[in-house]
Specification:
By secondary structure, the chain is an alpha/beta fold. 47% of the residues lie in helices and 16% in strands. The longest helix has 29 residues, at 101-129.
Length: 249
């Protein structure tokens, strides 16, 4: 396929949503730079996407927890992409996080610290250029703390707030900052969970929403993959705390 001269930077390339998003962009004629923790796994995804679409797909190895390497990573990119999408996330185990500080720290750093710091570096370079789109994948879990996943939810709440502040600061810079909240998604991370069909998206559905919002301007700055999540989360946020404490969520 002949490229259109635009590049997507996809951070979290071996995740189900990451793979689907990279494929959507490649099908649209974009070059793709895949970034992930294990080069062999990232290269496998790159080879598959290239074979399916004919797109030019590059790879880079980077661990989202290796924050000391972020500046080096940025310097290694030959040209800034037009769009950067960060889909990094780790649900972790709530009960384990309550007992194991190292596990809790990993969940928090994977879902907030690492993505926020890397997105921040990208944003500064995009702002200096005066253009670009940044997409961060957050979660409805960050809208109100629930007993079943508040460590993960707290980290995603931090990322949501970071993206909101960044969007506010860069609103006149020519840089767009989007927050995407997929809700439940049928992925390896949720394998084995009983998910409600009405609220559960497929990875390609999420990818299509990302592309439509980032490149088509559809969905606004904060995108719920399934529209039902917006009123549902408004209702959950409005429940008085004395009542909320009695709910098993």
């Amino acid at each position: 396929m002949k490229g259109i001269g635009k590049t997507l930077l996809l951070i979290g390339a071996t995740s189900d949503i990451g793979r689907a998003t990279a494929l959507i962009y490649a099908e649209a004629g974009w070059d793709v730079l895949l970034v992930g923790r294990r080069r062999v796994a990232v290269q496998r995804e790159a080879d598959d996407i290239s074979a399916r679409t004919g797109a030019h797909v590059m790879v880079h190895e980077l661990d989202i927890l290796a924050t000391s390497r972020f500046e080096e990573f940025m310097s290694s990119i030959s040209a800034l992409p037009e769009t950067a999408v960060c889909v990094v996330g780790d649900l972790g185990e709530q009960f384990r996080a309550e007992q194991d500080l190292e596990h809790a720290a990993t969940v928090m750093r994977t879902n907030f610290e690492g993505p926020a710091l890397l997105i921040g570096l990208l944003a500064e370079r995009f702002a200096a250029r005066g253009s670009g789109t940044i997409v961060g994948i957050s979660s409805v879990a960050g809208e109100r703390g629930r007993a079943s996943n508040y460590v993960y939810g707290a980290a995603k709440a931090g990322l949501t707030a970071f993206l909101s502040g960044l969007r506010n600061r860069l609103s006149r810079s020519g840089v767009r900052v989007l927050t995407v909240k997929p809700g439940f998604v049928r992925t390896r991370m949720t394998d084995g969970m009983k998910l409600p069909p009405l609220l559960t998206a497929e990875p390609r559905e999420v990818a299509q929403k990302i592309f439509a919002a980032a490149e088509g301007g559809r969905g606004g700055d904060v995108v719920y993959v399934r529209a039902i999540w917006r009123p549902l989360m408004t209702m959950i946020r409005s429940i008085p705390e004395p009542i909320f404490k009695r709910l098993r969520l």
